[in-house]
Amino acid sequence: MWNFSPSAFDPANPRKGGSFEVIQEKKWDGTPEDELRHDVTDELAAYKLAQLPFPGVFGVFYQNDRPTKNALEKKWVDQTREKLGHPSDLALLQKTFDRMK
Fold first, then answer.
1. Domain ranges within the chain, ordered by starting residue
2. Measured between alpha carbons, how far is 10 from 14 in angstroms, rounded to an integer?
3. Residue 91: pLDDT band by 50, 70, 90 thresholds?
4. How far is CA 33 from the centre of its chain?
5. ω before 32 within 30° of 0 (cis)?
6. How far apart are the C-alpha atoms of 65 and 40, rounded to whole Å?
């Protein structure tokens, strides 16, 4: 096939003849097909997927169930409030600034 324009075919764009390969996640259903699917808890396999040449694959490479930054900060703030007797936001801010003097 001859293209008059180099951008007429784009392997990363389905509208230009390419296709998106979506990762098939492991379902843990014990079927033979499941052995070929991707385990999103396998960090090493995720790095291998991330290094595939362009256009690569799309989907969840790695998933880890750990607290988010916001959840950890909320826990820290709640613990601090409890230690200080549940002060208001203004009082807590004032105590923070008092320590900076």
1. 20-65, 69-100
2. 8
3. confident
4. 25
5. no
6. 11
| b/e 40-60 (16+ beta carbons within 10 angstroms → b) | beeeeebeebeeeeeeeeeee
**H/E stretch holding 95:** helix 89-100
pLDDT at 97: 87
Region of residue 30 (phi > 0: left; psi between -120 and 50: alpha; otherwise: beta): left
Q: What is the mean pLDDT of the chain?
A: 85
Q: Coil, strand, or helix at residue 59?
A: coil
Nearest to 56 by CA among 19, 81, 29: 19
Instruction: Check if the beta carbon of residue 20 is closer than 8 Å to that of residue 14.
Output: yes
| CA angle 30–38–22, rounded 5-degree value | 120
Angle at 71 between CA 87 and CA 98, to 5 degrees: 35
Question: Residue 8's pLDDT is what?
Answer: 61
